[in-house]
Inverse folding.
């Protein structure tokens, strides 16, 4: 277990800045996910932590000891970290057993202890029956389980997952992510995950760092990040977000025909002027005309423009003004509106978030 | 927590750690070897052409015209034969396709002088230029076949189905197919033309005795009579420039080709076209063609090789060939493999220079390198094993480097990273992860260089001494002296040795060498 501290960490490739002056602390025993789109620099951050890439500026420290800086780095083989790769990276010329024991032999583990540790690692990850097979004889999820066994066998202090489940189908991805989460909880291993999948990040993480263009825009728990995003990027990174331009004047904000007292919003300090408001579709409610609006909620009458049935729920497009941008609203599959039907849109002002 | 500048006691210099493997001295040593093997000979040749004044007059225009004519005719004939053959073998249900493919690719193991000796036995009275065209076309058939097969393999079944669904007519679909694999074939043709232009063995035995000068035979004639001549250097440089231009052109054509540009894993297997009643007639035609061009001359060579055997004659050339081929293959694999590794893995700044030097030999035909080596090292090392090995290895460097680099690119860098993360040093990672996976490519590269060294004629002919003369040089020397029976035996043994080594290497490495994938 270990604490990882990134201080003013940067990595440049010529004129291109992949990682731009990042500060981040990964706490002992927590799972922190670096979440962002392709090419945002999240994998580079992970490789900087692993020692596979040297920083251009700043430093990486492990339990207060600097292990990477522009002046020098501890080589990866001496960092006591384990890493799972998107490409799995099992060695095709070795059996699963040989793959798993490779690290033990490299670290000079007593030969008598190796079979026991091999058995434990294979059993923990559920690939014991494949011990004598070559990697190409395993399914992709089992290959990744074997790679996890290989990594856990050496008992690393930090586990790094570089989009490790990105090549799996959604079901296998969720299953394997849950298995990793269970193992991580058992061992209490400090874990840093890189992924572009918001669901995987939610499932795995104690905290999520939203990475955009080489910078970290916000770090928080999954719930806080979802409910109170600080930027447009973070708002759209996790789930569906309705972003509407509006105005702040005095003690009120106004957008799309709604006017809300600033006092009813959380964390809405700021000067007067243009703002962007973020709403989640599930925080809006569609009502039949004449239905009572919940206490403290605000409403607008309008019309259903389009609807899509998605099994568990309906997605409706609701427009208050013929020319205005429609609202996407999720409703239970029992609440059925016809396209073109009159409806009332209600929203809870406490759920409205102003983003930058 | 301590932050700020790292303390020396806690931080190891990562770059120093990375550079511990490969060893620091590797790049300078490789650079020195490449300078000795490639750069110095090429520069000295250029210098000789610029500074020496004892110009000897050679009749350049007819030699150039004859060379271009023979190369063009041979390329045309090879295209006419090899492209339809590739189409039949790669896309139709032609019977025995695998055997036919092997037969065509086996011609890569036969040197042009062996075909020339075969044709000497088959049709001694035919016009020399006709025999030369047939020989050069046969030698050129396999590369064009390979390129066409490769390009055809890149056109996926879904492409053909999409065209069919869109209602594209059959002629238009054929035109699309030609557009897809045409550039690859054109690139192969240009390369074949350049190879035919600098071939020495066949012209030496077929056209030179008839007084028909070609560039290569003229260079050899002048080399044998006045080796210090600047005209010689001039002719040699002409060859170099021509080869460089053709290689450049071929490279550009290849880049435009979807077949040679990338290996598209996503391309589905194309369903075989059913030839129906034409299946067996097509097979008869293809077999007849291969028999006429390749099987007949080789059969004539083999029959004559066993007609009047003097085994004692073979011993010294066989030993010389085995020694030169073994050592040059080992040297080429060592240098080419190291250059490929430096360029592919640690990404050293000097790797680009080393790669450039290793690939520079691609524009130096064997005859040019032989003259250059003789000019620079002839006085000190002339006729020695060292010079023969250096020359043969230098010629093989581009191919070896490319072959091993292709092997390295199949090993994902994450496999190295995984080993490092588990505690393996860069040296241990190389030994335990990279080397075992690269072994098939190393064996394959070694065998291919060995086979090439067995049939390499110009360097063997111009740099060897009478005491150390490999099979190729001895065979051609005897043929020039009129002893075609011994020449046949020597050529046959050269082919047999290289075929045996390639066969064994294919089995050992588990990868079929010289065989395009269907």
């Amino acid at each position: 277990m270990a604490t990882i501290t990134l201080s003013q960490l940067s990595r440049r490739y010529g004129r291109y800045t992949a990682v731009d002056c990042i500060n981040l602390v990964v706490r002992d025993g927590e799972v922190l996910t670096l979440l962002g789109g392709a090419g945002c620099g999240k994998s580079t951050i992970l490789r900087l932590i692993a020692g596979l890439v040297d920083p251009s500026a700043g430093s990486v420290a492990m339990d207060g000891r600097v292990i990477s800086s522009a002046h020098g780095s501890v080589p990866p083989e001496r960092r006591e970290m384990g890493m799972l790769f998107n490409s799995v990276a099992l060695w095709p010329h070795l059996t699963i057993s040989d793959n798993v024991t490779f690290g033990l032999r490299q670290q000079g583990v007593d030969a008598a202890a190796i079979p026991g540790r091999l058995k434990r690692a294979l059993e923990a990850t559920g690939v014991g029956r494949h011990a004598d097979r070559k990697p190409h004889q395993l399914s992709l999820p089992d290959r990744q389980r074997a790679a996890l066994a290989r990594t856990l066998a050496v008992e690393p202090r930090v586990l790094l997952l570089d989009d490790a489940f990105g090549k799996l189908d959604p079901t296998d991805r969720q299953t394997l992510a849950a298995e990793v989460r269970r193992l991580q909880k058992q061992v209490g291993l400090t874990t840093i995950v890189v992924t572009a999948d918001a669901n995987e990040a939610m499932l795995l993480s104690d905290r999520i760092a939203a990475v955009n263009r080489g910078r970290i825009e916000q770090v928080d728990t999954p719930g806080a990040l979802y409910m109170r995003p600080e930027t447009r990027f973070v708002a759209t990174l996790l789930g569906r977000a309705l972003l509407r331009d509006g105005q702040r004047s005095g003690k009120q904000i106004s957008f799309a025909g709604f006017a809300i007292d600033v006092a009813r919003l959380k964390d809405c300090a700021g000067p007067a002027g243009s703002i962007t408001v973020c709403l989640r579709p599930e925080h809006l409610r569609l009502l039949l005309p004449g239905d009572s609006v919940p206490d403290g909620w605000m409403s607008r009458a309008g019309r259903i423009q389009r609807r899509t049935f998605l099994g568990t729920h309906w997605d409706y497009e609701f427009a208050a003004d013929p020319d205005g941008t429609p609202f996407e609203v999720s409703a239970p599959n029992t609440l059925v509106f016809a396209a073109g039907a009159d409806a009332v849109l209600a929203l809870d002002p406490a759920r409205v978030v102003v983003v930058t | 927590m301590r932050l700020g500048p790292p303390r020396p006691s806690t931080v190891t210099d990562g770059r120093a750690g990375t550079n511990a493997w490969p060893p620091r001295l590797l790049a300078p040593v490789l650079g020195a070897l490449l300078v000795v093997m490639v750069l110095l000979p090429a520069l000295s040749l250029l210098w000789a052409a610029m500074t020496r004044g004892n110009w000897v007059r050679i009749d350049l225009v007819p030699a150039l015209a004859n060379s271009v004519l023979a190369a063009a005719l041979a390329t045309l004939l090879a295209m006419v034969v090899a492209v339809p053959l590739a189409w039949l073998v790669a896309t139709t249900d032609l019977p025995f396709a695998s055997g036919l493919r092997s037969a065509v690719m086996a011609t890569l193991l036969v040197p042009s002088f062996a075909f020339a000796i075969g044709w000497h036995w088959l049709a001694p009275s035919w016009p020399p230029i006709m025999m030369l065209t047939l020989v050069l076309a046969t030698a050129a058939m396999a590369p064009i076949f390979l390129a066409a097969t490769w390009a055809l393999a890149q056109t996926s079944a879904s492409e053909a189905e999409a065209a069919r669904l869109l209602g594209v007519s059959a002629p238009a679909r054929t035109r699309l197919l030609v557009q897809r694999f045409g550039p690859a074939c054109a690139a192969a043709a240009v390369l074949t033309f350049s190879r035919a232009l600098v071939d020495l063995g066949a012209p030496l035995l077929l056209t030179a005795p008839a007084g028909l000068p070609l560039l290569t035979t003229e260079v050899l004639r002048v080399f044998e009579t006045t080796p210090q001549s600047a005209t010689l250097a001039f002719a040699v440089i002409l060859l170099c420039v021509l080869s460089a231009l053709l290689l450049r052109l071929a490279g550009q054509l290849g880049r435009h080709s979807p077949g040679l540009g990338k290996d598209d894993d996503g391309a589905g297997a194309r369903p075989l076209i059913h030839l129906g009643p034409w299946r067996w007639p097509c097979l008869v035609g293809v077999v007849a063609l291969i028999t006429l061009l390749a099987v007949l001359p080789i059969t004539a060579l083999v029959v004559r090789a066993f007609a009047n055997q003097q085994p004692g004659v073979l011993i010294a050339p066989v030993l010389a060939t085995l020694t030169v081929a073994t050592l040059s293959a080992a040297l080429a694999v060592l240098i080419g493999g190291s250059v490929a590794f430096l360029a592919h893995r640690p990404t050293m700044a000097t790797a680009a220079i080393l790669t450039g030097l290793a690939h520079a030999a691609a524009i130096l035909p064997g005859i040019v390198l032989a003259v250059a080596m003789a000019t620079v090292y002839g006085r000190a090392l002339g006729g020695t094993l060292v010079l023969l090995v250096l020359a043969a290895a230098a010629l093989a460097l581009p191919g070896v480097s490319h072959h091993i680099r292709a092997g390295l690119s199949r090993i994902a860098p994450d496999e190295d990273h995984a080993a490092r993360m588990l505690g393996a040093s860069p040296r241990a990672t190389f030994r335990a992860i990279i080397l075992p996976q690269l072994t098939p490519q190393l064996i394959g590269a070694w065998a291919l260089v060995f086979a090439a060294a067995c049939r390499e004629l110009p360097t063997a002919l111009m740099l060897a001494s009478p005491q150390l003369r490999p099979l190729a040089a001895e065979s051609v020397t005897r043929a020039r002296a009129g002893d075609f029976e011994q020449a046949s035996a020597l050529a046959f043994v050269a082919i047999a040795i290289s075929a045996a080594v390639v066969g064994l290497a294919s089995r050992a490495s588990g990868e079929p060498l010289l065989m395009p994938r269907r």
User: Anything to note?
Assistant: Chain B touches chain A at residues 1-3, 5-7, 10-15, 17-18, 412, 414-415, 417-425, 428, 432-433, 436-437 (CB under 8 Å). The first helix of chain B runs from residue 14 to 19.
